[in-house]
Write a structure and sequence with these properties.
By secondary structure, the chain is of the alpha/beta class. It has 6 helices and 10 strands. The chain has a 6-stranded mixed beta sheet, sandwiched between helices. A two-stranded antiparallel sheet has the order 2-3. The longest helix has 20 residues. The radius of gyration is 19 Å and the shape is globular.
């Protein structure tokens, strides 16, 4: 709870996944991705309730073992790959308010596919929402200039061209304005943002930029890279004499 506002954390973890089958149960350095969310939220005392929204019995079992509650089973009509995050969160919020007979002021979405998130990332996002009176706060990372839209190309009938015609004018990366992308670490929103706007972003959405290398897992390569980054950074934290 922050400033008397009750916080509901929702981990959306459906069973279907095309890139990696049953992705949310895939081990990340020996721990299922969905379980890492449970372990993390158990360390964050300001979260009042933490649940999983799933349509899969094994995910339910693993989530409960890790500290996430699973008080309902996600209905089939909310389990397809074309269902929006807002639809899943609205359903979860309404179900939990019905079950708990409680009014939740803030909802935070913690996707299993961002295993490099840390406790401080989540807390900072929630504090930013409340202190800045935002409708929503998303965590973002600066996009590498190599992936800037003005440097992207398209191929049509084997012919190469710039995706954006203005790309022809770019000579050096210093000409590019910084752009950002979602890193999937945390999405925080007010109750009214979800229920009134039916969205995970309101008219005022704050950006919490995180400087670390953060990977949102969609492919086996993403998983391998994220494990490497986690292991490297953990090793540095353990052996850096400045850390005490």
């Amino acid at each position: 709870m922050i400033e008397n506002k009750k916080i509901l954390a929702v981990c959306p973890a459906r069973g279907g996944s095309k890139g990696i089958p049953l992705k949310n149960l895939v081990p990340f350095l020996g721990v299922p991705l969905v379980a890492r969310v449970g372990h993390l939220v158990s360390e964050i005392s300001i979260i009042d309730r933490a649940i999983v929204s799933t349509d899969h019995h094994e995910i339910t079992k693993v989530a409960r073992q890790s500290g996430l509650d699973a008080p309902f089973f996600r209905p089939e009509d909310l389990s397809g790959d074309q269902i929006s995050d807002a639809q899943v969160l609205i359903h979860a919020l309404r179900e939990m308010e019905r079950i708990d007979q409680v009014h939740y002021d803030i909802v935070i979405m913690l996707q299993p596919t961002s295993p490099l998130r840390r406790k401080e990332h989540v807390v900072q996002a929630m504090e930013m929402l409340v202190q800045g009176h935002w409708d929503a706060v998303w965590t973002v990372s600066e996009t590498d200039s190599k992936h800037h839209p003005l440097k992207q190309l398209k191929v049509e009938a084997d012919q190469l061209n710039y995706y954006e015609p203005a790309g022809h004018q770019i000579i050096a990366r210093q000409q590019l304005s910084p752009l950002y992308h979602r890193n999937g670490v945390a999405y925080v929103m007010t109750r009214s943002c979800l229920l009134d706007d039916c969205s995970i972003s309101g008219s005022r959405t704050g950006a919490l930029e995180l400087k670390e290398h953060l990977i949102s897992i969609d492919t086996p390569w993403d998983l391998e890279l994220a494990e490497f980054i986690y292991s490297r950074d953990s090793s540095h934290r353990c052996h850096n004499p400045l850390d005490g």
